[in-house]
Amino acid sequence: MIFEMTVQIRVSDFEKGLQWYQLLLDKEPDFIPHEGFAEWELVPGSWLQVGEGTPAESSGPIRLGVKDLETCRAKWKQLGIEGVEIHSREEVPVKWCTFADPWGNLIGFFEYLDKTEEKKRIKEIIDK
Predict the structure, then answer these.
(1) Which of its termini does the chain have fewer beta carbons within 10 Å around, N or C?
(2) Residue 98 is part of a domain; what is its CATH number?
(3) Which pairs with CB-CB distance under 8 Å and at least 24 residues apart come from 39-46?
């Protein structure tokens, strides 16, 4: 049984990457086990690791669920991310967008269109 997961991305300049991801995620890392490596627990049991190194080409995106994409857009502007197109399709229950961090790692965000479903998912995750 899988009970936890981590996703690792690499940045060529760790200090800039650390600052960039702290602003993007709106929090300090939860764990810095050693120099050049930081981890954020995004939801219980799901970790994003940012390590110093050569970014992988054509990987991702890692997609993160949020309550409001428009609120996130204001924060992205502080990171120099503008012109992000938000997509939706009739048969898909979320709207989403994708952009690259300064090192080329693809990051995506999505928002549930049905707020009742969103609340249900949040409760399921928190209650586990």
Answers:
(1) N
(2) 3.10.180.10
(3) 39/6, 43/125, 44/125, 44/126, 44/128, 45/3, 45/4, 45/5, 45/128, 46/4, 46/5, 46/6
